[in-house]
Amino acid sequence: MIFHRICCLHRKVILMRTIDWKEESKSVVLVDQTLLPKEYRIIECKTLSSLCEAINSLRIRGAPALGAAGGFGITLAALRSEARDLETMVKDLEVAGKVLKSIRPTAVNLGWGVDRVLRAISDAFDIQGIQDIAFQEAMNIAEEDVATNKIIGEYGAKLLKEGDTVLTHCNAGRLSCVDWGTALGVVRSAIAEGKKIKVIACETRPLNQGSRITTWELMQDKIPVTLIADSMAGWAMHQGLVDSVLVGADRITQDVIFNKIGTYTHSILAKEHEIPFYVAAPISTFDFNGWEGSVKIEMRSPEELRFFGSEQCAPIDVEVYNPAFDATPMENVTAIITEKGVFYPPFLLDEVLV
Ligand code: MRU
Q1: 172-188 confidence digits (pLDDT tens)
Q2: CB 259 within 8 A of CB 294
């Protein structure tokens, strides 16, 4: 992995896409999100293993961004493979796909991106063909992500009123996608339409994607944002500070929305306070055959809770429960905003497929 560029944070930085392709070195470039908000650093992954490390350590994260990473991962594997014949290369890439998918099993987009590129290469006649098709399909995924998020934004913006304050959790913004964002894309689109919208960002312990990433990216765009601890969400709602809750999703099955741990709690709080609870996600996040029970929730290291960054904040040997995601039942969801429109209960997934 190569450190590509370091920018200072006391100024507004020139933002690149969260993940992209660098043709000169035939490598994946991405914003290292573990360093935000202190540092905006772009890293270069030349090999599948360096990209896997970046995914595992959450340098790149967020469901749609992981979809692009999956596609680029197969491209890297194809370009660096030592296979000399088509059959061996296809086998190599299937193994690479399994490795990639296993790193973060809950976010469906990672596997979706991998499978999409693997499907595309089945049209290839030779090794060069595989490499070209893999690259092209990975680029298509990245391009489509930006276009899709803009459409989601337009649909979602209609649900927000002038002067609304939206509570969000984790980061479903530009940095969780290739660009624009899903939930925060809705906010961006509403603001682009001329509405004044404010955001309340929950910090999202243990890895603080809300306080580190959401606040930073909104402040870069001068979008008003107030940070709260996760435990303050209920009281903020009770105080009338929240007009709607707007989150992204990592996987939408027939019965639940998987999203960052804490989302379920917000959905209950929103229901109790009669506040709309919106989910913004592309169709690629839908797992049309899945149910809550069929999905593996990623469990992360106990160290993420025993430490706050590098500071120990709990007894070193305390027992820890650290699921990365939770599942919000559909009955708590007011609407799902997709690039195919806004869906309301009873959320018949067949409607989404049409
Ligand atoms: O563990 P992370 O940071 O990858 O979790 C990300 C989330 O839960 C996001 O809310 C989700 O991916 C939606 S991103 C548009």
Answers
A1: 999 999 999 999 999 99
A2: no
